[in-house]
Amino acid sequence: MGICQDVEPVVETKAAVDSIEPLIRPSRASEIMCTDDHQGEMLFDVSVCDNEGVKNTWIFSPRLNKVFVEVNRQIPLDFKVENPTGQRLFVRATLQYSSQEFAADPVIRCHQHRVEDKSNRNIETHVRRHVLRCGNQNAIYIGNEAGERPSFIFPLAVPQAGSHSVRELIQFVCKSSCYPPGMNRKQVDIIFTLENSQSEVLGRKSIKAKVCACPKRDKDKEEKPSLDKVRLKRRRAEEPADGQSETRNEPLTEFDLKVRCYSKPVIQKIVQNIIDVYRSQMHELRDNPFEYGRVEKVHTDMLKVQKDLFK
Predict the structure, then answer these.
(1) 178 annotated among ligand-binding-site residues
(2) pTM, whole model, 2 decimals?
(3) Is residue 92 classed exposed, middle or buried when 0-12, 13-18 and 19+ CB atoms within 10 A define those classes?
(4) What is the pLDDT averaged over residues 22-29?
């Protein structure tokens, strides 16, 4: 069954803030973030866990690199790094609009969810504008002023014995379809950056996201054009190159045709019909020089026959 508890960020304690002090400087929304994946030397990777529940409260499309999720539902993510030195690492999660036209606009919640939503219980006022929340108890929410890009940061734990990754939970508390200043149907990217205590970016992973009422339906709908393109590409690859027919290398077959007629006009009409057929084929094969030449030869021969019949 899908995980469906609400994520309630804890109030930021002084100890928690001091532990990641160099990292809590917010970025300006005007500073457009890179969305290219970068594993770096630590082979940083983020993956969405499979949803094995009966109800798809979230579902991930590898083809689209996109997660579809219901509002106020948790998404489990696995964070993986190779950290042989044992240095302290942090993960920052930031939302950014996918379209370059809106990439400089901060992604914030709509007024209705910011004021009336049940997820606001016991939540600090400055956190309520954040669309994305984290279940990690040490997460710090930054970018709370106008013009700043909202994000949260949490320390990356050490994997448990027998595991190579760390699991964290995130949750969207506003829908993709919410009216401005909400997302207003604009596509967003979740940009995860692996950072050290000096805010140096060591790795990056970007995942597209859509917050909707029917994740599986929307996933299937958005994947269909992509699947159609793959099928079309495969079909074209199976076709002979340059539009040439599969009979390009086949030898020209000749048939001796005997027609018994009782009048010359009848045989003239038969020859004319054959000429019309070959003329039609020549028109269809005008972009295929090889086949066009073969048909043109037969067409020319039939014209000579027709000429002899009308002498």
Answers:
(1) yes
(2) 0.68
(3) buried
(4) 60
Distance between CA atoms of residues 120 and 126, nearest Å: 11
CB 7 within 8 A of CB 74: yes
The pair of structure tokens assigned to 84 is 């042989």
The band of 59, judged by pLDDT with boundaries at 50, 70 and 90, is very high
Cα-atom radius of gyration of the chain, to the nearest Å?
A: 33
Residue 49 marked as a ligand binder? no
Residues 42, 265: Cα–Cα separation, whole Å = 87
Query: Token digits for 148?
Result: 């700043």
Contact 128, 120 (CB under 8 A): yes
> Is 134 marked within a binding site?
no
Strands of the sheet with 90-97, listed across from one edge = 58-61, 66-69, 201-211, 188-195, 90-97, 151-155, 140-142
The C-alpha atoms of residue 110 and residue 115 are separated, in whole angstroms, by 9
What the block records as the tokens of 233 is 């590409």
Any known ligand binding at 38?
A: no
Q: What integer pLDDT is reported at residue 190 of this predicted model?
A: 98
Q: What is the pLDDT of residue 306?
A: 66
With beta carbons less than 8 A apart as the criterion, state whether 302 and 278 touch. yes
pLDDT band at 10 (very low <50, low <70, confident <90, very high): very low
Residue 294's Cβ-count burial label (10 Å; 0-12, 13-18, 19+) is middle
